[in-house]
Amino acid sequence: MTKKNAFYAQSGGVTSVINASACGVIETCRQHADRIGTVYAGRNGIIGALTEDLIDTSRESDADIAALRKTPSGAFGSCRFKLKSLDENRREYERLIEVFQAHDIGYFFYNGGGDSADTCYKVSQLSETMGFPVQAIHVPKTVDNDLPITDNCPGFGSVAKYIAVSALEASFDVASMAKTSTKVFILEVMGRHAGWIAAAGGLIADYDVPVVLLLPEVDFDHDRFIASVKHKVETHGYCTVVVSEGAHHPDGRFLAEQGTRDAFGHAQLGGAAPVVAGMVKDALGYKFHWAVADYLQRAARHIASATDVEQAYALGRAGVEMALDGKNAIMPTIDRVSSDPYEWRIGSADLADVANVEKAMPLDFISEDGFGITDACRDYLYPLIQGEAYPDYDQRGMPRYVVLKNEPVAKKLGPFEI
User: Fold this and answer.
1) Is 62 a catalytic residue?
2) What is the reported pLDDT for 356?
3) Which among 37, 77, 33, 24 is positioned nearest to 55, based on CA atoms?
4) Which ranges in 103-211 belong to alpha helices (H)?
5) What is the tens place of the pLDDT at every residue in 385-411?
6) Residue among 118, 144, 151, 308 flagged as catalytic
């Protein structure tokens, strides 16, 4: 068997554990140096492949690659760049194959969400027709937890832990001040079409915290929402609201929609929390505070879930092992065996069944009134946030996060406009 090089890239919004998947990919490739040559990484994701801006990971020490497991965000740079369909822009896909051919790349590991799964699938198809087969493996990643087939997505468990802990701590603060000050705290979290992250905020109800969830799966009803907040404040003296950025009106309009679009063509969101806060103020006159978790929730490696870190690494490793077994156009998955005790194993899914498919929360995970979660949801969530995987800290009290050299590979082709 002819030894081929590998290409790895990170896609979309990064997470606190995506580098753990990168570590799993690179370390496993190094363990199979007899079958896989150099691992090249794309600088700023798939754009690095299109522009032939490759990073030579062989120039990084074993210790620095190992340190990726404890370092947040994307060590090689990510991007929000969706390749058009083959019919619309075949040239982009042909360029990818040309770059792979020029650098003798036979393995493509793309670490991302639904859009990157689609790209990975198309590359696997086109490479065959162009006479340069590339084994394309999608390594799952998304804080939104909305990829199908897999039980959960690396990145989500740590975000869920951050939101649950942060919402709980903030609620304790509000409870302390509610008599004479703030009565309602609103926390906005990520989740465009799926309410998994907001659902994690519902775990604070187990501490007798009065909480209202606003989920994308439930059409927003202004009057019912105001009545719920009023009841909780009158009963408990305060209330916490966790609102997904994707919360929307019955006609589909997002509470936070700005009328603009992002690079993927999705509605640009931002500001659900102040919108909701304004409703509370106008209807009830309560003093409030609001916050937007934003990048903090997905970058918080200091409170990452140990389960999440372990699974992120395992899926990176499994992707390489599957490629070595001759698999193509697939995604390694997490298959839940049991919730109590928690047990899971690695499975796989065909990319044809994954690409551009979003998984919403099951309706039986949402309470009857639409503002909370059920025991079934709790049973699903708690195992994913279990365990702490703290980074190492230096004597100054700051975490030891690695910054790679990211040395470039000499280009062999001409420029390419994107």
Assistant:
1) no
2) 84
3) 77
4) 114-129, 156-177, 196-201
5) 999 999 999 999 999 999 999 999 999
6) 144
